[in-house]
Amino acid sequence: DATMRLAVRVARLGTRFVLLLADDRTEAHRLDEVRRDFIANISHELKTPIASVSLLAEALDHAADEPEQVRRFAHRLSAESKRLGHITGEVIELSRLQARDALRPDVLLDVDRIVAAAVDQNRVVAAAKGVEVRVRAKSRAEVYGDEALLVVAVHNLVANAIAYSSEGGRVGVGVRVDGDAVEISVADQGIGIATEDLDRVFERFYRVDQARSRNTGGSGLGLSIVKHTVQNHGGDVRVWSRPGKGSTFTIRLPLAERPVPVVDATAPAD
Ligand code: ADP
Q: Where's the Histidine kinase domain (predicted)?
């Protein structure tokens, strides 16, 4: 009887081992596909600006004695080069995030500081578009993480909220504690996202409306970077949206410890 039980256990373990191996192989295969897709996408994304740069350089050569034309071509050349630089930067950032041990989130960070830095970086763009960005922090919270990466993640959400708002729109950034997590939400009253696109906006290079997104200088990598960063920190990111009404993106991160209540800075300390 005991021998029988042992045999069954060994058989079970064997099955589990085989399943594990199979699982590993499927995972390797999936990663391979993802990698292939990624490279195909980058090549495609880089082709257009590279072709433009080359055409513009040629046009410049021909327009040598027409200063107005030269200025126009030079201006566009500079814009296309910037776009190339932007895409390349994001690709590097994303591959860094996807490297398995890219991140050791072990520094205690103040969420308010992360949000303030991300909003600050968007001030000029917001002002140029007449968009008002307001921060409302209900509680102060701390998380463990990589500050630079988290600032980039929040920055990307705020930048999108401004980019997809109409002139004079409003963007609200909120911080609140919910259970053992802190939620950072970025809400706009902009164009919104159709239901069928909602699941896909976090995919690399996905853009709802290619032409419109290109006008905003987007690469389709911003939200993918947000997703990877947040997942690397043990959190997640969600989106709510209604076309024509606006969108709210919410990042959830595990709290480092119990939240610190907001204190009135003007009250005398005891
Ligand atoms: P991009 O650099 O093109 O903005 P993202 O990955 O940041 O790329 O976003 C992917 C797509 O999701 C965008 O092209 C846009 O269509 C849509 N999107 C992102 N944020 C918003 C928003 N706040 N409002 C409406 N659409 C958005």
A: 41-257
pTM of the model: 0.72
CB of 213 closer than 6 angstroms to any ligand 1 atom? yes
Among 160, 207, 227, residue to substitute to test ligand 1 (most atoms within 8 Å of Cβ): 160
Nearest CA among 138, 127, 188 for reference residue 158:
188
DSSP 248: E
Q: Three-state SS string across 196-261, please?
A: HHHCCCCCCCCCCCHHHHHHCCCCCCHHHHHHHHHHHCCCEEEEEEECCCEEEEEEEEECCCCCEC
Give Cα 139 distance to the centre of its chain: 24
Question: 3-state SS of the chain: helix, strand, coil percent to 5?
Answer: 55, 20, 25
Inter-axis angle of helices 222-232 and 67-98, nearest 10: 20
Give the integer Cα–Cα distance in Å for 249 and 186. Answer: 5
Q: What is the ipTM of this complex?
A: 0.97
Ligand 1 binding pocket includes 185 (Cβ within 6 Å): no
User: What separation in Å is there between the alpha carbon of 165 and the centre of ligand 1?
Assistant: 11
pLDDT per residue as tens digits for the range 134-164: 999 888 899 998 888 899 899 999 999 999 9
Token pair, residue 53, equals 């740069």
CA of 201 to the centre of ligand 1 (A): 7
CA of 125 to the centre of ligand 1 (A): 16
Its sign, for the CA torsion 146, 24, 90, 116, is negative
103 forms bridges with which residues in the sheet? Answer: none
Write out the two tokens for 105: 């989130």
Closest to 114 measured CA to CA, from 261, 262, 253: 253
